[in-house]
Amino acid sequence: MNTNWTHPLERQSVGKAFVSYLVPSVLGMLVIAFNFIIDGIMVGHKLGSTALAGIGIASPVYTLFVAMSLWIGMGGATLYSTYMGKKDPTTAKQIFTKSITIILLITMVIGYTAYTFKDKLVYALGANTETFPFAEDYMNIILLFGFVFTIENALTIFVRNDGNPNTSMYAQITFAVANIVLNYITLYVLEWGVRGVAIGTIVSASLALLVLLTHFFKKTNNLKLTRFKWNAKLLASIVLIGFPSFLAELGMSVFSISHNISLDRIAGTDGVASFTVLNYIHGVVLLAFLGLASAAQPLVSYYHGAKQMEREKQTIRLASRTALACGVLLLIVVQLGAPYFVQIFGNFSDSVTDNAVYGLRIFTFAYLFMGINFVMSTYFQSVGNAKMAIWITAAREMIIMVALIVILPSFLGVTGVWLAVPLSEMVVLVTIGMYYKKRSISERINGLTIE
Known about the structure:
Layout: H1 8-11, H2 14-47, H3 49-85, H4 89-115, H5 118-124, H6 132-145, H7 147-161, H8 165-189, H9 194-213, H10 232-305, H11 309-343, H12 350-363, H13 367-382, H14 386-412, H15 414-446
Helix pairs in contact: 2-3, 2-8, 2-10, 3-4, 3-6, 3-7, 3-10, 4-6, 4-7, 5-6, 6-9, 7-8, 7-9, 8-9, 10-11, 10-12, 10-13, 10-14, 11-12, 11-13, 12-15, 13-14, 13-15, 14-15
Protein name: Multidrug export protein MepA
Membrane topology: Multi-pass membrane protein
Keywords: Antibiotic resistance, Cell membrane, Membrane, Transmembrane, Transmembrane helix, Transport
């Protein structure tokens, strides 16, 4: 690298830098979310609530692939930005090459291995005789070709971390628009059913990948494939730092499976269908919060590597306040619009509609806490405090949530299912506050700054 070269983050104020990453990151995620909503509407209107439930049951497989790409992608991209902050582009390029290679190999092995026992897998995820055909059709395509969108997803993160959030956004827009068009063709013109939805996802990811590849022709590109040796210490750092991102996506699978199983037991197929509708809407919020946290991550990683601690703190304060404001706004919007949001997915039975609306109005209280939890998990991940990042992610999506979803329905029925996530998010935010209080006391006692 030219010694006179200056990273754009060195030339911008924290506020301006944050906004320059926030806008394309959140817009890109919202476009992806809008695509998922359109998917749900198309499937709901064309194939009905049982097909919608089938896709919901198979969706953890898609989530697992995304989790793998985020695990290595986020871990690698975080280290990439940190080493760029340290002015060590050689190591940064090796990290990029290792990450892409690992993602491709792992996701292909997982997909082809799982394909050999896919029928058992479908039932294990909560399918019954009604939903099995739809879940199987979706899963067949995703298992065989899922490596395409894992590479696309990981490269989106690296391109953003290489100072080009706009190209990442354009790729996300390409994916969303192409997916909507292809789903219309496969569902309404070719009538390929759920299998067509899965095919549309893979083809759309391929087109988005082509958009991301344009970054490599820009003069500002620092992402280059290079020869590398398998450095165990560096590989361990990628795995450890990225593990909270893997847990976050894996937690979505746990979220879906636990709700599907619990609701199937309490309310049958109608209960699962109502959750699938809620999950489409919830997916929009999750992606918005993920976009917000993703905007902060490159800045925090770079500032941390460059030892610009005050800028690092300013970034987190901005991100946390933005998350809280978004949470309040989303709570108000969903509370007022819940019946209308549910209706756009199709003309369902009163049981499905009423349960989905009721669930949404309870569930959305989680948004008051969820955004800040996302930001804080990303912060700890970006500065190398994997222990705290893992705790936040595992507690909110697995440990506390699963415990609540097992215990509460015994006393509150279906209401207990809907309450599990809001209570989980609130408890986790309290533990973050306790961590900072304990750290503050330790700093005063020892006179040290503890990372």
